[in-house]
Amino acid sequence: MCFRSLSALVLVLAACSHVSQAVLPIVMWHGMGDSCCNPLSMGSIKKAFESALPGVYVRSLEIGDSVVKDTENGFLMNANDQITQVCAKLKQDPKLADGFNAIGFSQGGQFLRAVAQRCPEPQMHNLVSVGGQHQGVYGFPRCPGANSTLCEIMRKLLDVGAYVSFVQDHLVQAEYWQDPFHYDEYVEKNVFLADINNEKTYNAAYKTNLQKLSNLVLVRFMRDTMVQPSISEWFGFYKPNSDKETVSMKDTRVYQKDLLGLQEMEAAGKIHFLASDSDHLQMNQTFFEEQIMPWFK
Ligand SMILES: *[C@@H]1O[C@H](CO)[C@@H](O)[C@H](O)[C@H]1NC(C)=O
Ligand SMILES: *[C@@H]1O[C@H](CO)[C@@H](O)[C@H](O)[C@H]1NC(C)=O
């Protein structure tokens, strides 16, 4: 640094405070079958942020107290409890006190949206959802992640029935299961998605808090073989009573009834739809650098 007089010092301080405010910390939430710290996934993305944005604080969320637990919790820990745990972690982290940007992968996308809606402090600014299922799923044609044991458990429990209360309370994937043929049952029995989408009991704070985001960036994988339907990644879903025809965000109930303020956010230019021409989470480096990184600069 190079200040030689008080006025120069003031200028430098002004410049410094500008610089230090320019890059917000980043919070990451991994997807199902993954963990906070896998060097091949979240670990490498954390490193990419750190090298592109020198000095940035990146927190990759670990749910539970070990990597093994973290992976297991992605299947078996009630999503509402996960969100409560994350809200507490974010609040207790002094480095996040002045706000942060967030990036969620797969189910981490809708979970971070739930964090924005339920826990407005500290403030989340940009939320980038990479393959998140904002209207849920109706089918898991393929299971991600290396652990086939957990995958088997998930399939068996979904066979028992996504809306059976034991399954709802214990299987994360059932908690964002939406059966387009049984909307009323979904609203009644789903313990997570129907709530954060304001379809159960209307919670005005969800709408107010979501609109505090500066940007909601929705990345969809156009050749996704894991998420059905992949348009859920853009807040669309199946048409009522169909598992073939889909509708875009604007034709869903959540949008039409303005349950979350998506109409206002769209009018304000806050919702962004990005497409990766690949399978689930398989974005290439160019896409990451050119389409995702700018939201964190
Ligand atoms: C898969 O998950 C199960 C249940 O959490 C665990 O016991 C097992 O060690 C895991 N296997 C691998 C290869 O990580
Ligand atoms: C990277 O992904 C983008 C978006 O899917 C695609 O348009 C582009 O062709 C890909 N680039 C390479 C080098 O594969």
Automatic annotation (TrEMBL):
One GO term of the biological process aspect: receptor-mediated endocytosis
Listed GO MF terms: palmitoyl-(protein) hydrolase activity
Domain of life: Eukaryota
Entry keywords, A to Z: Disulfide bond, Glycoprotein, Hydrolase, Signal
EC number: 3.1.2.22
Bilayer-spanning residue ranges: none
Cellular component GO terms, alphabetical: lysosome
SUPFAM superfamilies: alpha/beta-Hydrolases
First and last residue of the signal peptide: 1-22
InterPro entries linked to this entry: AB_hydrolase_fold, Palm_thioest
Record Pfam families: Palm_thioest
Family note: Belongs to the palmitoyl-protein thioesterase family.
Name of protein: Palmitoyl-protein thioesterase 1
UniProt source species: Sycon ciliatum
